[in-house]
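REQUEST FORM: STRUCTURE PREDICTION
Request ID: SP-0412
Submitted by: Lab K.M.
Chain count: 1
Length (residues): 136
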Amino acid sequence: MPSPSVTPVPDRRASSASPLMLCAAAWFVPGAGHLLQGRTEKAVVFFVVLVGLFTIGLGFGGRLFPFRAAEPLVFLAAAAEWVLGLPRLVAALGGFGAGDVVRVTYEYGNTFLIAAGLLNALVVLDVYDLAIGRRS
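STATUS: Completed
RESULT:
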């Protein structure tokens, strides 16, 4: 018996935007890249979780690190935080994230802030993979 031919079904969720534009949107607003690709559930989950992690980090007294080339670990922490995009910008402009070093939860706060940015980097990579068809 001959095997039935399999025809690919076009992905109705695919976006006509370029992969780089989708990645820029995903970087700037967590979940926006998935939203533009029609993956609303994933977009909402990523937005809520990443902004939640960032907010918890600020609530724990974490510090928004400045870019200081003389201090490599501070520089890397700042780069990780800035991968979150708009939430990091809003927090900086709002005067949040001064860091309360004597607070018991200070280091936990820093960890939450940095982890939120690093997780958003993975979300941006997922958006790119979906946009170029590497994943579906």
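NOTES: The chain has six helices and no strands.
Reviewed by: T.R.
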